[in-house]
Design brief:
- There is one protein chain.
- With 178 residues, this protein is mostly helical.
- It has a domain at 3-74 and 154-166.
- The protein has six helices and no strands.
- The chain has helices at residues 3-25, 29-52, 58-91, 101-114, 118-134, 136-166.
- The mean pLDDT is 93.
Length: 178
């Protein structure tokens, strides 16, 4: 494959990568699902590109970089999610659910017997807004602990890779963590 076609294939990969990152920042469930689908497609495309590429070629280099970015981000995600959970669980106040406890417990028994878990959600519904309002800061901080390092890492890796790809250059060490 000539250099121009190789570079175009790599830039398409980074285009999908960038779209995935942007969609992950949009605060709608549909955008999050689309972002996940794009990230999955990105992974398959990168593996396919690397499989077809000549060893040590521009495509092999950038595909390896994108694949490593995906898996390292997944590892970091497990770590940051755990840290966010530990932070959140130690600080959440469940007092806003106190008025709903009796109803939740009785509906829990009904849910187990009938197989309908929606009754538990209905019993808790009157207290959810108060719980979210009372714990707003803790929930926001936990979300930042879980997501901000990942977004910074993805942004860094994306910018670094795209910058090199636009110039038609390889990355010095595509298997590096940073």
């Amino acid at each position: 494959m000539d250099d121009n076609k190789e570079q175009k294939a790599i830039l398409n990969l980074y285009g999908l990568f960038g779209a995935s990152i942007i969609l992950s920042l949009v605060p709608f469930a549909a955008a999050a699902v689309l972002s996940l689908l794009f990230f999955t497609a990105l992974l398959f495309m990168a593996y396919g590109l690397r499989k077809r590429a000549a060893p040590e070629s521009l495509q092999d280099n950038h595909a390896t970089y994108v694949i490593r970015t995906f898996w390292i981000t997944a590892l970091f995600s497990a770590i940051t999610s755990t840290l966010a959970s530990v932070y959140m669980l130690g600080r959440i106040d469940y007092a806003p659910f106190d008025p709903c406890v009796e109803s939740i417990l009785s509906s829990g028994e009904t849910a187990v017997n009938s197989g309908n878990s929606a009754v538990v959600y209905e019993a808790a519904a009157p207290c959810v807004d108060g719980f979210l309002a009372f714990n707003h800061t803790v929930l926001i901080n936990a979300a930042l602990i879980a997501a901000l390092p990942l977004m910074l890492y993805l942004g860094y890796r994306f910018t670094k890779g795209l910058g090199r790809a636009l110039k038609g250059y390889r990355l010095a060490n595509p298997k590096s963590w940073f």
